[in-house]
C-alpha cells in the first residue's frame, strides 16, 4: 500500500512568530523544522505500509527556499522519498491555494492509496486543508482520526466527536487526518539519518503542477489584510511561593468566587 | 444597512441546537438584514424553534443518514448558494463545521478565513478579525472577490442571546450529489461516559500539563479536583501529544476554547498556543514549579510550587469544607 503524507516545515514554535510588515506573510527566514503535528502522520503511514506488507511512504511538502531540513527528519524516520514544492510564486498562498498545490502533487505522485495529514498545522492552523484536498481529488475524507485501520480496500477510523468517537469507513483512495498523540512517533536512528541524506527529493515548481502565476500565491488571494495589531494583554495578579500552605490561599480565592 | 443575506451553518448537539450555532445566529441578526440557517440533522423540525428564536427565519435542512455531516453540508450549501445567493456564510470551528467549509470552498473555488473572533460591516466591506500566533496578534482581513464570503469562528466569539423570533420555517433539501465523498459512512457512534459538565460549558475547568510529571498523576490530581469542584478536566497540548489524555481534552489553539468562571492550570507553563484557548476565563489560578513560567503573566492567583504537594492538600482542604 502506498501512503502519501503531507508534512509542513515550520519555524521553531518555541521562537515567537513574526510577520513581514511589507508582505504581511509569516517570516520564514530561519531554519525550518518538521511540524510536530506531522510526525504522527509519518509514523502512522510507516506502520500502515508495514502492516500491509509492502508499499512506499512518500512525503509532500510545500516550503519556501527549497527547504528540506524538516523533510529529512521524516525521511530519517523511514519515508522513502519526497516531493518538495518550492516556488516564490507560491508565497502568500491561502489554504485553498495550498490545497490545490497538494492535490496536484498527489496526482504527480501517481499510485497513492491513502493520503495522511495532521488535523492542522501548528503555525497556520486553519484546519481546512485535508477536506479541501479530498474535495479537489474527488475522494472521501475521514477527518480527526484517533485510530486508523486499513484492509480490503477500505480505511476505517475512530473519528473524534464532541461526545466520544464515531466509527467511520470509506473506500480507498481516501484522505485521512490524524489527531496528535494517536501513535508514538519513532526517533530517527543513526542509520536512518544517514540514509535520509541520499533519499530522493523531487523538486517541483508551480508551473510543473500546471499553475500559472496569477492563480496561486498573493496574486491568487482574494482577501486583503487591512491591519495587524497586538491582542489585548491580560494583567497578572497575585503570585505567591508555596511554603506548605499555598492551598489555603487557593481555597480562600475559590470561596471568594463562591465556587466552594 | 446591514448585509442583505447572512447564513449560518448550524449544527445540532444531542438533539438541540449547538451553543456555537446560537452564538453565530445572534451575531448574524446584528449584521444581516435577512438571516437563514443550513442544518444537517434528521430532527431539524425539533431544532427549528430554537434557531428561530435566535434569529433564523428559515432553515434549510438535510438529513445526513449515515453519511458524514460535513459532506452533506457542503453539497447542500453548494446547491443552495447558487439559488439563494447569501452574501456571507458563518461557520463554527467544529469538527463538522470545518469539514463542510473546506469542501464548500473547494467546490465553489472560494477562499475561507478561519480562527475568526469578530466580524464587522462597513458599507459593502466585510472585515473579520483572526487570531494568529496562538492569539497574541489580531489580523483584520477584508474579503475581496466573489460572494459568498466564508468565515469560520472560534467558539465563544459571541454571546448567544434569543431575539424573540418564532420557529424557523423548515425547508427540506434532498437528492444531493456527493460523489465518492459520500462513500464515507458512519458505522457506529461511541459515546464516552462523562461525569459532570462538558469542557466548554463548565463553570470550573481544571487542566494539567507536562509539569504533572507522568500520565498517572492526571487522574488523582486533575480529574479529582475537577470532580470536586463540579467542573471539567482539560489538558495542554504537550500531554495530549504525549498520549497521556485524549485530544478531546485539549485546550488551546488546536483544541477547545473555554471561558469558565475559574480556570485552574496545573503544571502548565503557558505556551501561547495553550493560552489562546483559556485566557478569556473570568479567573485564572496557576500552579507551577517554574516561577518564570509565562502562565503567571496572566494568572489572577499564581502559586509557585510543586503540584504534587499543593494539589493533594488543596483537595483535602476542599473535602474538609464538605
SSE topology:
The complex is a heterodimer of chains A (260) and B (322).
Chain A: E1 3-6, E2 9-11, E3 32-34, H1 36-51, E4 57-62, H2 69-77, E5 81-85, H3 95-109, E6 114-118, H4 129-137, E7 141-151, E8 154-160, E9 164-171, E10 174-178, H5 190-196, E11 201-204, H6 217-220, E12 223-230, E13 238-241, H7 246-256
Parallel strand pairs in A: 1-4, 1-6, 4-5, 5-11, 6-10, 7-10
Antiparallel strand pairs in A: 2-3, 7-8, 8-9
Helix pairs in contact in A: 2-5, 3-4
Chain B: E1 3-10, E2 12-13, E3 16-17, H1 19-31, E4 32-40, H2 44-53, E5 58-62, H3 69-84, E6 88-92, H4 95-108, E7 112-122, E8 125-132, E9 137-143, E10 149-153, E11 169-172, E12 185-191, E13 204-208, H5 218-228, E14 232-235, H6 237-241, E15 262-266, H7 272-275, E16 283-288, E17 301-304, H8 307-321
Structural summary, described in words:
The complex is a heterodimer of chains A (260) and B (322). With 260 residues, chain A is an alpha/beta fold. Chain A has helices spanning 36-51, 69-77, 95-109, 129-137, 190-196, 217-220, 246-256, and strands spanning 3-6, 9-11, 32-34, 57-62, 81-85, 114-118, 141-151, 154-160, 164-171, 174-178, 201-204, 223-230, 238-241. Helices cover 27% and strands 28% of the residues of chain A. A nine-stranded mixed β-sheet of chain A has the order 9-8-7-10-6-1-4-5-11, sandwiched between helices. A two-stranded antiparallel sheet of chain A has the order 2-3. In chain A, a hairpin with a 2-residue loop joins β7 and β8. Chain B has helices at residues 19-31, 44-53, 69-84, 95-108, 218-228, 237-241, 272-275, 307-321, and strands at 3-10, 12-13, 16-17, 32-40, 58-62, 88-92, 112-122, 125-132, 137-143, 149-153, 169-172, 185-191, 204-208, 232-235, 262-266, 283-288, 301-304. Chain B is elongated. Chain B is built from eight helices and 17 strands. Chain B is α/β, with parallel strands linked by helices and 322 residues long. The interface between A and B is large, with 85 and 100 residues. β12 (223-230) of chain A pairs antiparallel with β9 (137-143) of chain B.
